[in-house]
Design goal:
The chain is of the alpha+beta class. It has two domains: 92 residues, no CATH class; 196 residues, no CATH class. The chain has a four-stranded antiparallel sheet with strand order 1-4-5-6. It has a two-stranded antiparallel ribbon with strand order 2-3. A hairpin with a 4-residue loop joins strand 2 and strand 3. Helix 1 packs antiparallel against helix 2 and helix 1 runs antiparallel to helix 3. The two termini are 33 Å apart.
Length: 332
């Protein structure tokens, strides 16, 4: 099977890979600069509190030494009493010096709070970048399955039942089964089960690690992971990615040449705002199998989506959303 990829198709792919490498390099330098600043700050805090701590620890020991000096004019009995008390006092002071003082405890708490405030944004950004890369890996494998499917079905994309008929619902691009829950639909046709195509061995690849909506993998695991779609009638299964469908949502026409390098086929879920996994943007899977990141500038895509799932799809909403997703000049 020939993929139809030409040198001019591979050039944008290489450019997008260079952008990804540049992004990871910036993240590495950002974390390194934060740790350098943190090390300098800890050293400055320690120099500031070191002298007061040493004074506080030295003061009880000097005081105990003064208490242990006997008075030559006292009687032997008084000297024994003073010696007994001084020995107890020195044992107590030694025990206290072996643990934490109040000042030391407060300094430790302050440093912990300071470190938490400095590191939390960096750790959050690192985790977000890692989840974004895991999502991109999922989409690359979905892209490979789609290429195999296109090769077996004469370059025709999997059908999406909700896009057929007069009342087209492109919001249902996340569905993996038809409304009855018994037959594969959309990207569900790629799953390896009796009613699916058998191009994806693991159904988890259709679920994003950043998903925060109502469609986690655990909810549908028993339904889509077996040899058949085991579900009750009227219970459809949903994934976390939005499939463009076999028709173009912008003009309702059949998609020709779906393996084109500039053809966006799969993005984050867009059934509702909570299904838009990464909030700040989305990974995009193209027809030739490559994946890039599309930033949602000023939340234009997110705010265009419905807050809750509606029975009647608002007119032209998904037409405009897919037009924004296809814009190449806003890729960041």
């Amino acid at each position: 099977m020939q993929s139809g990829r030409t040198p001019e198709h591979t050039l944008p792919h290489l450019q997008r890979n260079s952008k990804t490498c540049a992004f990871l390099t910036e993240e590495k330098e950002y974390l390194r600069s934060n740790f350098t600043r943190l090390d300098c700050l800890v050293q400055r805090v320690w120099r500031a509190v070191r002298s007061p701590l040493e004074d506080c620890m030295a003061r009880p020991s000097n005081q105990s030494r003064q208490e242990t000096r006997p008075d030559s004019t006292r009687s032997a009995r008084a000297m024994r009493s003073v010696g007994y008390r001084s020995s107890c006092s020195s044992r107590v002071s030694v025990a206290l010096r072996g643990g934490f003082t109040l000042v030391e405890f407060l300094v430790v708490i302050s440093i912990v709070v300071l470190l938490t405030g400095i590191l939390m944004p960096s750790l959050a950004r690192a985790r977000e970048a890692a989840d974004r890369m895991r999502c991109a890996s999922n989409l690359r494998q979905v892209g490979g399955a789609l290429v195999d499917y296109l090769g077996d079905y004469n370059d025709k994309l999997p059908r999406l039942a909700a896009a057929d008929g007069e009342a087209r619902k492109y919001s249902e691009g996340m569905t993996l089964t038809k409304a009855d829950g018994q037959e594969a639909d959309g990207l569900g046709r790629l799953l390896r089960c009796a009613n699916g195509g058998g191009y994806l061995a693991d159904a988890r690849l259709l679920y994003c690690p950043c998903h925060r909506g109502e469609h986690p993998f655990e909810r549908y695991a028993s339904q889509i992971s077996g040899a058949t779609f085991d579900s009750e009638a009227g219970t459809p299964a949903y994934g976390n990615y939005q499939f463009r469908s076999h028709l173009d949502p912008r003009n309702d026409s059949p998609i020709l040449n779906p393996m084109h390098a500039n053809r966006v086929l799969v993005v984050d879920g867009m059934r509702t705002q909570r299904d838009f996994n990464h909030v700040k943007g989305t990974n995009r899977l193209f027809g030739d199998g490559h994946v890039d990141w599309r930033a949602d500038v000023d939340g234009k895509i997110l705010n265009s989506l419905p807050i809750e799932q509606l029975f009647v799809e608002p007119p032209n909403v998904y037409k405009e959303v897919w037009r924004k997703l296809d814009e190449g000049d806003m890729i960041h």
